[in-house]
Amino acid sequence: MKKPTTQLAVLLAALGLALGAQAKDWPAPIKALEAQGVEVMGTFEAPGGLTGYAGLIRQQPLAIYVTPDGKQAIIGTMIDGKGVELSEEPLNRLVNKPLTAKTWKQLEGSTWIADGAKSAPRVIYTFTDPNCPYCNKFWNDARPWVQAGKVQLRHIMVAILTPTSAGKAAALLAAPDPQAALAQHEQQQRSGGMKPLAQIAPKISAQLEANAQLMQQLGFAATPAILYKDEDGYLKSMKGAPSAEMLNRILGPR
């Protein structure tokens, strides 16, 4: 009974060594890019004897093409004679699809306040500071979509702008009805909005800290930071209050 288990262990160990060796055998330009913060997600076939590498840096996909001798790399978009972009499909498959799944799960697991119907067909996440005027503008601009039941905004509360941000964010999260409290706060934001808590419970403090860490991890330093899925289901993001044109792209048709 022990022999198959032993054989399986040896096989898995050998596979692990092979994968480790493969990762270490990247061409020199790829290793140099990794040292600069690029995460290599996989390889793909490319024309002209080149080898394609799908990379990720600061939450952005990156197409890298290495020459046949492995000594040089070209970064950017490749098109064919008809103007068709050849890097889109492999980047979607190797980078955007797994990145969307991973990030969306992280967003779902964060601490947020729902704004809109649970049955809304479109969900938008936004990092929100209670003292942020641009967050307030986005909240107001999104009302037609939210009130029509087409969009649910999920406000991931952070406290990065002013000394009262943490107390106000904590008060919103601790409210008996956070959604109603957020609506009242946004309606009165210009006159001060929610009264900040003088003391923040350890649990809520930890939630705000985790939200701030996630925001930083995703590469955002200001609010609002908006994350949504495009028509193909891939993750997209935007910093700041959207223009009228971007609102339609993010929130969909009215």
For the record, what is the CATH homologous superfamily label of the largest domain?
Glutaredoxin
Q: Structural class from helices and strands?
A: alpha+beta
Number of domains: 2
Shape: elongated
Termini, distance in Å? Answer: 64 Å
Mean pLDDT: 91
Return the string of H and E elements: HHEEEEHEEHHEHHHEEH
Percent of residues in helices comes to 40-55%
Question: Class of the largest domain in CATH?
Answer: Alpha Beta
**Main sheet summary:** 5 strands, mixed
- Residue ranges: pLDDT <50 for 5 or more in a row? 1-22
Rg over alpha carbons: 23 Å
- The number of helical runs is 9
Order of strands, widest sheet: 5-7-6-8-9
The CATH architecture of the largest domain comes to: 3-Layer(aba) Sandwich
Number of strands: 9
Beta-strand fraction estimate: 15-25%
From the 3D structure, determine the CATH topology of the largest domain. Glutaredoxin
